[in-house]
Amino acid sequence: MAKELSEEKILGSKFTLSLQTIITGAIGLSSLFGMYYALQADIQEAKELPTLESLYESEYPSKPQGYNHPASYEQYKQQVGSLQETQDEIYEMVEELQEDIEELKQQVINLRIAVQ
């Protein structure tokens, strides 16, 4: 059978706190407060520490002094793209110069033949 809870039964029951229960509760609360303030102090200390990025940059410099590296992938792609265009232009100039050299060689041969 289910026990019925009524207001009279609840108000009629006697609630007592022993000294041991009060001391245990006080110790528990003081432990919680102590942990809270210790955690707050650790958080504040962590905020004052240098960031990981600054530590990484100072201990492991990836950019040597005097070199200008691209800061992002898009800039890198843009620079590589312009290098490809420059390289293509240089190859065209080399081909033109080789043609000029062949023409000059032919002219030298023709001059030798004409002189003899």
How would you describe this protein?
The protein is mainly alpha-helical and 116 residues long. The chain has a domain of 50 residues. Helix content is 75%, strand content 0%. The protein contains four helices and no strands. The mean pLDDT is 81.
Summary of the model, kept short:
With 116 residues, this protein is mainly alpha-helical. It has helices at residues 7-12, 19-48, 52-59, 73-115.
What portion of the residues fall into strands of 2 or more residues? Answer: under 5%
Q: How many H/I helices?
A: 4
| Global structural class | mainly alpha
Q: Tell me the Rg in angstroms.
A: 43 Å
**Straight-line distance between termini:** 136 Å
Regions with little confidence, pLDDT below 50 for 5+ residues: none
Mean pLDDT: 81
State the helicity in percent bands. Answer: over 70%
What kind of assembly state do the chains in view correspond to? Answer: single chain
Number of strands: 0
- Gross geometry: rod-shaped
Order of helices and strands: HHHH
Largest sheet: none
Which key phrases capture this entry?
116 residues; mainly alpha; 4 helices; rod-shaped
Chain-wise SSE layout:
Blueprint: H1 7-12, H2 19-48, H3 52-59, H4 73-115
